[in-house]
Design goal:
By secondary structure, this protein is mostly beta strands. The chain contains one helix and 41 strands. The chain has two domains: about 120 residues, Jelly Rolls, CATH 2.60.120; about 325 residues, Methylamine Dehydrogenase, Chain H. The model has no long low-confidence stretch (mean pLDDT about 95).
């Protein structure tokens, strides 16, 4: 046998649940901070600070929200005892509201609403009655009143067919409230029953039993999903006279409501088992349901946060126990059914505004993902590993000779084989369409290649990559 050339195809998804021998050549058992959407291997883009000032607090962060209005955005950061607002005039984060009983991010919800003719941000915190934030005055007010029966302590709020629905009342954990239908002088802060018409009336219903509390509400185009700790229900109908609450018969691990994100009238959510979605009738597992199983099995999802931006879903998790904030960001490309991991920063919370993903770090930085080549000055350590490759012949020795590639930037290449590990760093040709040859060493029946950034600098490696090797039968 003699010299042979093999072409390594395009670069793709992270897949950790399969043995290397079952992985397609474009899948990676270990990759991070990489963008493969074009088929090439590129360092992922970073983020920049929205404002230079840090949020400083004495208690841990829990949530953040960017409230976009016609007159600009308002930036809110929530710690366990205090909500902060960024004051653009003075350039500081100032205290906005103090929570007397403290809050946790998993029992907190934000919702844009209109009360009469006024636009407000509704804030449910689970430890005291709901609040509203006015972007015109930058003031907080209590949402409901005892007279209108809306002075309730709830954790979850959602709009469905114009009405406000709420749940998470500690005094009635299975109770689902709804407001009057807005219009004709009625507003969504009025939850009283109306004897003149059942269809404009406010009201409530107990869903299931109290020892199975409601843990989240999500409105789809034609139904309201009601997550409970051990079950899932859906409310159908557009007015109280035709409301029907039906149990969804599906076996899955219940998510936190902060693990759920809507995309194209589907609700996706991440659990310890993998990625699931509700398709309008039942819960299904994604095609790559177990792709990140090794990470999720040992992860702490108690502070998980989720957001959707364009065709990508983001889930921030703690990859291990004992860390204060989420340290791993999972990217899921819905159209390609592919995962990628991001590391190198911490995540308190994230949300999408005007097509841009915003994130609050554990250090108090509010950042936006953009074309920055760093994580706000911190280098982006990026790498992508091939599966263990035998090129269809475990009975032969392969002597690795060289890679022939095109691309940009400096790149680190590691070749691991039976004969040991060989590392090299090389600058890819800066000439357009210039070809670079990367010498390799190593002999073995099975080998693995690893491509990585150098000193956190960005690189691009075009696909395919050509590998020259000498193959010899073993005696």
């Amino acid at each position: 046998m003699a010299y042979q050339t093999v072409s390594l195809p395009s670069f793709g998804s992270v897949r950790m649940d399969l043995a290397d021998g079952l992985l397609k050549p474009d899948m990676s058992p270990d990759a991070c901070n990489i963008d493969t959407r074009s088929g090439a291997l590129c360092t992922a883009k970073g983020f920049s600070r929205v404002m230079p000032e840090l949020v400083e607090t004495e208690t841990p962060f829990e949530r953040m929200y960017v409230y976009a209005t016609e007159r600009g955005s308002r930036y809110l950061a929530v710690a366990q005892d205090m909500m902060y607002l960024y004051d653009a005039v003075s350039g500081i984060w100032r205290p906005l509201y103090q929570f007397e009983r403290g809050v946790t991010g998993e029992c907190m919800d934000f919702l844009k609403v209109r009360i009469g003719t006024a636009d407000r941000l509704l804030i449910a915190c689970g430890t005291e009655p709901m609040l509203t934030f006015d972007a015109e005055t930058n003031l907080i007010a209590v949402f409901g009143t005892s007279e209108k029966e809306s002075y309730k302590t709830v954790s979850f709020a959602e709009l469905y067919f114009g009405r406000l629905f709420a749940a998470g009342d500690p005094q009635a954990p299975s109770r689902l409230y709804w407001s009057k239908a807005p219009g004709g002088g009625r507003t969504i802060d009025d939850w009283r029953s109306d004897e003149t018409s059942e269809n404009v009336s406010g009201g409530y219903v107990d869903v299931g039993v109290d020892d199975d509390p409601i843990t989240g509400l999500f409105a789809m185009s034609n139904q309201l999903l009601i997550f409970k700790r051990d079950s899932l229900y859906r409310l159908l109908g557009d007015r109280p006279s035709n409301y029907r609450i039906i149990a969804v018969d599906a076996a899955f691990r219940q998510p936190l409501h902060t693990a759920c994100v809507r995309y194209a009238d589907r609700l996706f959510f991440l659990t310890e088992g993998g990625l699931c979605f509700y398709d309008g009738q039942t819960v299904r597992k994604s095609a790559a349901f177990r792709a990140l199983e090794p990470i999720l099995k040992g992860a702490n999802l108690s502070g998980i946060r989720a957001a959707a931006c364009d065709d990508t879903l983001y889930f921030a998790i703690r990859a291990r126990y004992g860390v204060p904030y989420n340290d791993t960001l999972i990217e899921y490309d819905v159209l390609r059914d592919r995962f990628m991991l991001r590391k190198g920063f911490t995540t308190v919370d994230l949300c999408t505004v005007h097509g841009a993903l915003h994130l609050l770090t554990g250090a108090g930085k509010l950042v936006v993902f953009d074309d920055n080549v760093s994580y706000d000055g911190d280098p982006i350590d990026a790498w992508w590993c091939t599966p263990a490759l035998d090129l269809g012949r475990k009975d032969t020795n392969k002597t690795l000779l060289r890679l022939t590639v095109t691309g940009e930037g400096n790149i680190g290449v590691r070749a691991v084989s039976d004969g040991g590990t060989y590392d090299t760093v090389i600058r890819l040709s800066s000439v357009p369409l210039g070809v670079t040859e990367i010498p390799l060493r190593g002999v073995g029946r099975v080998f693995r290649l690893r491509f990585s950034s150098v000193n956190g600098k960005p690189f691009t490696l075009d696909a395919p990559v050509s590998l020259l090797f000498d193959q010899q039968k073993r005696p």
